[in-house]
Design brief:
heterotrimer; A mainly alpha (255); B alpha+beta (329); C mainly alpha (284); B: 329 residues; alpha+beta; five-stranded antiparallel beta sheet; 26% helix; elongated; C: mainly alpha; two-stranded antiparallel sheet; 2 strands
Chain lengths: 255, 329, 284
């Protein structure tokens, strides 16, 4: 029984890591195609990728859009969660349902809807239009996380602050936000993660300025190339390092 | 069914710490034994070892004369009532109670009738179709008991089962537990930190502290004639007066501690000299009086006097005790 | 103004921005898309109309309807296989791996999540392609004489999907398993249940709601995905998302694309309604 368990575990991990290993190994391919046989180690593809203007621009666009759209989503979501948690509003169940609804809809459909509206109103496609879409998909997430994090402890502190004369803005900025900092950070990082890797909305709602996943997609159109491997490996490496750093900081804080 | 339990020289290590230190205990078949002690004294560890959830580092456990070494909880003639009941939320009460029988391959009809029987035994007749979340805490506890007894174990282990109930309910359940145990005749081993609970239900109390057995015996004996200072203090409030040599008619070889229960003071018995009343408080069923003995002004004794007596602060009274114990430190 | 009224005003003020955004950029677009689905194409122009032409086309033209069937079949297979592979993995990590290493084991099981989704599917193309790692290895070892044609078929799409969803489901099922109080298993063992019985009567039923939720998420994501089938599936058997994107491309047939999207949403909503019974968490 124990043997079977080990075999399954190893087989599962092998299956999970297979494509990533192939990706990374052949990013060092000294040759034109990222397929066997492996012809030797070369850094040429990494050099090509890092020197590619379009790719670097796309990378910058992705980072910018992820940060900005996540910040907007977090702000809107936090305010809404705060509003619903502190005041008894009529139909709050429906409000909550509406704010969370976009989470259940395919990104393709959200993108198509926005594309329809932008076409009909003559709005030009750009990073801004894609950013709008990203806020739509991340707002429900931020709202849900903030709403779930609001508890009696923090509500009591807010009541005390109001009692001592703080205005609503001051309560939000000096009491609510700091107390909910862990949830806010989690929501922000989760939104950044989703936005960073998001393809279909960015693909349909941008024209000239593109994000990284869209740029990689066009690379795929021109066939297999170790350059794509290099980009993928770099993205993977950066993401893993970011996660490790987050883990270390979280652990440090807990200890 | 029922069986005797023999614990022989059991020790249990957790890393560098010793959870149980050479514990030996004989429990007779059909006895209601209570393991009593503060948190960390080893009582739950001992219970787990009897139940097979932990293996003793040293020593052995025999149930009904059989050595339980290497025998898992599944195959031991014991069942456990857990502190959080652990009723299966996705099954009805009848299915919960019949679970152990199902594991033994008992047919559905027999299971159903036996489950109904057990639910009636614990006072939940006819509720077999309900689910755990529909019941109150006390009712769930009874279902847990019924489930554990349905398989007719030789030994029933109870891990602080009344801890989650409020006082009134706890007192009622204590009486019910005792009554059920008398009816089924199974050996019960019950863990608690509440000395009143122990006295209410136990045939014998095992007082434990820091992995050792401090005292052992029927409630009356453990309360009135404790064998150690810890046991004396744990069983209830007690006055401790250090002695050296003799004290009045008492003759003690070497240093010792004279222990007297607050309610043992009165106007008869061993005379301890005069004492001044420092403080009086009415406690309902008794009057609590703090006194300072004239002969030992640095001592402050607690005396419980009958309801009707109302001494004045500053007055002197003649201290006499009807029962006492002298213990070595 | 009364205290309560002020409170409500403030509350509305706080909720308004998010509400306006959701209505403006989610509800209105969806409504616009819905309206467009009832329009018609004449040449290159969209004619506002109210006819069911697009929907009729969907039900009567086989290639269109087939796309939905393809999506459903692929999604069904992917869901079943992914759950079947992920549950044991999650169970092994939760119950067999020492507690100290569980976090690491879980992290390793989902590490490939951090390659971009597009790149991840591309990597499977490298593995499954005609000159890919799998074929070259099998040929080299001598197990096959001709390269296997996996890439650009439904099989490749399924493999690509299963890879992703096994990671996702392992995460969610693990979270479910660890939340389970160990006392349930203890009680079952105490009453005489062997390991298989403990799993069958206690662990499986209590984790089923979580598994159903995970399966539903898999269904929704898989039905709506364009990337994996486009990279790995070739152009023979299109899925519904691929069909929708095709309408947007050359022909620019927005009305038809809208109608197909509405149909996709309807199918997903239907699935939700059908599975809602099991999606409700069991009260403990």
């Amino acid at each position: 029984m124990k043997r079977l368990v080990w075999v399954y575990l190893c087989a599962a991990y092998a299956f999970i890591f297979l494509p990533v290993i192939v990706l990374v190994v052949f990013s060092f391919q000294d040759g034109r195609l990222p397929v066997p046989p492996f012809q030797g180690v070369s850094l040429q593809w990494y050099a090509k990728v890092l020197g590619d203007r379009d790719l670097m621009a796309a990378l910058f666009n992705s980072a910018l859009m992820a940060a900005v759209s996540s910040a907007v989503a977090l702000t809107l979501g936090f305010l809404a969660a705060h509003g619903l948690a502190r005041s008894v509003l009529p139909g709050s169940v429906w409000l909550r349902g509406l704010l969370i609804a976009p989470m259940t809809v395919s990104y393709l459909i959200i993108a198509l809807g926005l594309l329809t509206v932008f076409n009909q109103t003559g709005v030009r496609l750009s990073l801004w239009t894609a950013g709008v879409g990203h806020v739509v998909i991340n707002l429900p997430l931020c709202f849900a996380i903030c709403y779930a994090a609001m508890g009696d402890h923090q509500k009591a502190a807010e009541r005390a602050a109001r009692d001592l004369g703080a205005s609503e803005v001051q309560v939000l900025w000096l009491v609510s936000a700091p107390m909910l900092a862990p949830a806010l950070l989690a929501a922000f990082f989760l939104s950044v993660t989703f936005s960073w890797d998001e393809f279909i909305i960015a693909f349909l709602l941008t024209r000239f300025e593109v994000t990284l996943p869209v740029e990689i997609w066009s690379m795929l159109r021109s066939g297999l190339s170790p350059a794509t491997n290099a980009v993928g490996s770099l993205v993977f490496l950066v993401s893993v390092v970011a996660v490790v750093l987050a883990e270390v900081f979280v652990f440090r804080r807990r200890a | 069914m029922t069986a005797a339990v023999s614990i022989e020289g059991v020790s249990q290590r957790y890393g560098a710490a010793l959870a149980l230190d050479d514990v030996s205990l004989e429990i007779a078949a059909g006895e209601f034994v209570v393991l009593l002690g503060p948190s960390g004294c080893g009582k739950t560890t001992l219970l787990n070892i009897i139940g097979g959830f932990a293996e003793a580092s040293v020593g052995r456990v025999l149930i009904g004369g059989r050595d339980m070494a290497g025998v898992g909880p599944k195959d031991r003639p014991t069942t456990t009532v857990f502190q959080d009941y652990a009723l299966f939320p996705h099954m009805t009460l009848a299915q919960n109670v019949g679970f152990g029988l199902r594991m033994r391959g008992v047919s559905a009809d027999v299971r159903a009738s036996r489950a109904a029987e057990m639910l009636a035994l614990v006072g939940l007749e006819g509720r077999g179709g309900r689910r755990p979340h529909e019941l109150s805490g006390g009712q769930r506890q009874r279902v847990a008991l019924a489930r554990a007894l349905a398989v007719e174990p030789d030994v029933l282990l109870l891990d602080e089962p009344l801890g989650a109930l409020d006082l009134k309910l706890r007192r009622a359940m204590q009486d019910e537990l005792k009554a059920i145990q008398r009816r089924v005749g199974t050996t019960f081993v019950h863990v608690t930190h509440d000395q009143e609970e122990a006295m209410a239900i136990a045939d014998r109390i095992v007082v434990m502290n820091a992995g050792r057995i401090e005292d052992l015996g029927p409630p009356r004996q453990v309360y009135l004639s404790p064998r150690s200072l810890f046991s004396a203090g744990f069983m209830g409030e007690i006055n401790k007066m250090p002695l050296d040599g003799s004290f009045g008619p008492l003759d003690v070889a070497g240093p010792g501690v004279l222990c007297i229960r607050p309610e043992a003071f009165g106007d008869q018995g061993l005379s301890l000299g005069m004492a001044r009343v420092a403080d009086v408080a009415f406690f309902g069923s008794y009057v609590r009086v703090h006194v300072v003995p004239v002969a030992a002004p640095d001592l402050r004794l607690v005396v419980h006097l009958p309801q009707g007596v109302q001494p004045e602060v500053g007055a002197e009274m003649d201290l006499k005790a009807t029962s006492w114990v002298v213990l070595k430190t | 103004m009364t205290q309560a009224a002020t409170e409500r005003r403030v509350g509305w003020g706080l909720v308004a921005p998010a509400l306006i955004w959701t209505v403006a950029f989610f509800v209105v677009p969806f409504a616009a898309m819905l309206a467009l689905s009832f329009a018609r194409m004449e040449g290159r122009a969209v004619v506002a109309a109210f006819d069911l032409g697009n929907y009729v086309r969907f039900f009567t033209e086989w290639p269109l309807f087939k796309a939905l069937l393809n999506s459903l079949e692929i999604t069904a297979v992917v869901t079943v296989v992914s759950v079947a592979l992920a549950y044991p993995l999650a169970a092994i990590i939760a119950f067999r791996v020492p507690v100290r290493w569980q976090r690491l084991a879980l992290l390793l099981a989902v590490l490939p999540f951090w390659t971009s989704y597009v790149v991840r599917s591309y990597s499977w193309l490298l593995v499954l392609g005609q000159n890919g790692v799998l074929n070259k290895t099998l040929l080299g070892v001598g197990l096959i004489a001709e390269p296997l044609e996996i890439a650009a078929t439904r099989t490749a799409t399924v493999i690509g999907f299963v890879h992703f969803f096994v990671m996702l489901l392992t995460l969610t099922i693990y979270a479910n398993l660890v939340q389970l109080s160990p006392n349930y298993a203890r009680a079952a063992r105490d009453l005489g249940a062997g390991p298989v019985q403990v799993f069958r009567f206690v662990i499986l039923p209590l984790t089923l709601p979580g598994v159903v939720t995970g399966a539903f998420v898999t269904f929704v994501l898989c039905m709506g995905d364009y990337i994996t089938p486009q990279i790995l599936g070739g152009n023979n058997e299109l899925t519904l998302p691929q069909l929708i994107m095709l309408q947007l491309g050359r022909s620019g047939n927005f009305p038809l694309a809208s109608a197909l999207s509405v149909i996709l949403m309807a199918v997903i909503t239907l699935a939700y309604v059908l599975s809602a019974r099991w999606l409700r968490l069991d009260r403990v």
